[in-house]
Amino acid sequence: MTELPLSTITLSTGFGLMLIGMWGMLVRKNIIRMIVGFSLIDTGIHMIMVSLGYIRGGTAPIIDGSVDRATALTRVVDPIPSALVLTAIVIGLGITAVMLAYAVQIHTHKETLSIEDCSDSKW
Amino acid sequence: MDAMTLLTLLICAGILFGAISAVSMGNVVSAVIAAGLTSLFAAVTYVILSAPDVAMTEASIGSGLSTAIFLYAINRTRRQEREKND
Amino acid sequence: MAKRLLIILTLFLLALMFWDVVASYSEKQQLAPVAAHYVGQGPDELGAPNLVTAVVVAYRGLDTLGEVTVLFLAALAVGLLLGTGASERNTGPANPASEIVETAVEYLFPIALLFGVYIFINGHLSPGGGFQGGAVIASASLLLFLALPGVRLRHALLSAIESLSGFSYVLVGLLGLVLAGGFLDNRALPLGDYGALFSAGTIPIIYTLIGLKVGAELSVVVERFRGNA
Predict the structure, then answer these.
(1) Which of A85, B77, B82, C106 makes the best surface tag, with the fewest CB within 10 Å?
(2) CB interface of B with C, residues 11-70, below 8 Å
(3) Distance, in angstroms, between B40 CA and closest chain A CA?
(4) Who contacts A58 (Cβ-Cβ below 8 Å, separation ≥6)?
(5) Which residues of chain C lie closer than 8 angstroms to B79, CB-CB?
(6) Chain B contact set for A113 (CB, 8 A)
């Protein structure tokens, strides 16, 4: 291995983040800690998607004075993963907020945050 | 290995360290702060990967608002616990 | 213990799968065909220098409309779950912040709001846009909640802003259907000078509406989580 491309580093970090988050989600019993694990998985997926859109030596996809329009095709990174991740982060916040609202609600009714005390909704 | 690769390696090590702390720390508040730190480092890698729009979103939403919502939720569940004990 | 072993086995198999992906990955040297079209034709077709904004608002505009709907539903669900009952109990006055913090926030809050507006109005020219600007506005409200525990948002005003901007978003999209090539087509208005503030057709209008909507929704979500502290 003579050189290590930037996007390979971030890609493997993204996968590592997914594994760590999944570990946290599966092992922990506290609901809030499971949600923390979920948001780690979320960040990992975003990192993977942004890494897949990277072009070697690319610059930001903003075509103004500093990037010539003729050479833009070879110089900018892929704008589509950026756009998708942009919306995915906002939706991730929405999902996290709903999950936390349910956690608060569970705590109000059961006065516990442990997932093991919620076995009545298990089939 | 140039400076950029080294910087990326360091930041990615920071991300993994933050994530491991977030799942292994005993205190829930510390875990949430560590997860916020992970998001902040991820925002830096987006800048390195030339995606400034995503970096702005991640920095403001992933590490800012999301951490705040987590802390408010923890505060609410704690406050009710304390009331119950009184 | 058996459960723990099962989890480790699952994660190990997942890691094997991921390793395969990482090993077969090589950094791309050129753009994929769709992206090449967006980069090559985007500035001429839509007149927006920031191509991420062009993809979010124009090329994949329908996805963004759906995404705004999802965020609206999330805010609705949070309001439904936390809005009444649980937060009614008065837990006594929270500790007030110090005089310095309160005064600083009174000066910083309008500046933070202005910065959020700046981000979403310039979304088609520089990095940023409706979602980032909205998040900055919500952060400004968060600052307000932290410094002044007794402060209340005016929900009637915020829901009016929120529903009006959502409604106008669809109206602007329909305008594209009538005056240009299709739903959410940004060429309903003239494209203007490339790189000017008032350019790129309806992109700045749509992003401003998204910014107002996201800012109002996220502020209310944060306030719901704060409860009646």
Answers:
(1) B82
(2) 51-53, 55-57, 60-61, 64-65, 68-69
(3) 10
(4) A75, A76, A77, B50
(5) 91
(6) 77
**Nearest residue, CB atoms, B39 vs list A43, A54, A107:** A43
Whether ipTM > 0.95 holds is: no
Q: Which residue has the tokens 């110089």?
A: A75
Closest to B32 measured CA to CA, from B80, B64, B79, B78: B64
3-state secondary structure C161-196: HHHHHHHHHHHHHHHHHHHCCCCCCHHHCCCCCCCC
Closest CA to C210 of C99, C109, C131: C131
Confidence of residue B81 (pLDDT cuts 50, 70, 90): low
- Record: contact A87-C31, CB cut-off 8 A: no
Tell me the C-alpha distance between A108 and A80, whole Å.
Answer: 42
Under CATH, which number does the domain A6-59+68-121 receive? 1.10.287.3510
Q: Which two tokens stand for residue C129?
A: 């846009």
Q: Residue A120: which residues within 8 A CB-CB, separation 6 or more?
A: none
Rg over alpha carbons for chain C, rounded to the nearest Å, is 22
Interface check B31 vs A, CB under 8 A:
yes
C119 touches A at CB < 8 Å: no
Give me the residues paired with residue A114 across strands: A30
* H-run or E-run covering A82: helix A79-110
Distance in Å, alpha carbon of A122 to nearest chain B alpha carbon: 23
CA A54 vs CA A8, A15, A16: distances in Å: 10, 16, 19
Neighbouring subunits of A (3+ Cβ pairs under 8 A): B, C
pLDDT tens-digit series, residues A36-87 = 999 999 999 999 999 888 888 777 777 777 777 777 777 788 888 888 898 8
Choice between C97 and B60, residue whose per-residue pLDDT is larger: B60
Whether the pLDDT of residue C92 is over 60: the answer is no
| CB spacing of C131 vs A87 below 8 angstroms | yes
**How many helices (H) does chain B have, and how many strands (E)?**
4, 0
Nearest CA in chain A to B12: A13
Nearest chain C Cα distance for residue A3, angstroms = 12
Q: What is the pLDDT of residue B85?
A: 45
